Amino acid sequence: MNIQYNRQVLYRIRIYIWIIIIGLALSGITAFPIETELSYWLPHLSNSKGFLTEWVNRVYVAVHRTNLQYPFLSYGTDWLAFAHLMLAILFVGPLRDPVKNIWVIQFGMIASVLIIPLAFIAGPIRHIPFFWQLIDCSFGVICMIPLYLSYKDIKILTKNLQRTNI
Q1: Are 9 and 160 in contact, with CB atoms under 8 Å apart?
Q2: Of the four listed, 19, 20, 81, 104, which is most buried by Cβ atoms within 10 Å?
Q3: pTM, full prediction
């Protein structure tokens, strides 16, 4: 196979992985200031009526009251944020050497699939509205797209590299 083609495949793989890294990092960074973010969005949503506005208001009140009385509970969301940042760092391995670190992509694909049962099992137990469970599931579905595309291209790159080494 031609070297230029392998470079194109590697370039695509890296774009897909950067999408995952940026998504995870943004998810982590935005999980730290939950109360501040909710207080920002609430006035923007207050002009509209509906499930989303009611839900965001309910979440804000719960987070605000909890932070006033039990601020240590937000430490749990700090760990959630930290986990997202660590997962973003995990994807640096396949960014550097996708063939050697394809297992990270496979791990990401498994995690993306497992978001769906988590949302539908834990959601009702935690009284999360169905529409929000669907939003949570969408993260797994959306994340699966660049992961699968990178996985497919890593397989192509692996095959091409094996042909050139024979």
Answers
A1: yes
A2: 20
A3: 0.90
Q: Of 111, 115, 108, whose CA–CA distance to 146 is shortest?
A: 108
| Per-residue tokens: 78 | 């700090």
Under 8 Å between Cβ of 143 and 113: no
pLDDT of residue 47: 72
For the range 15-19, what are the long-range contacts, defined as Cβ-Cβ under 8 Å and sequence gap of 24 or more? 16/146, 16/147, 16/149, 16/150, 16/153, 17/91, 17/94, 17/95, 17/98, 17/105, 17/146, 17/150, 18/95, 19/146
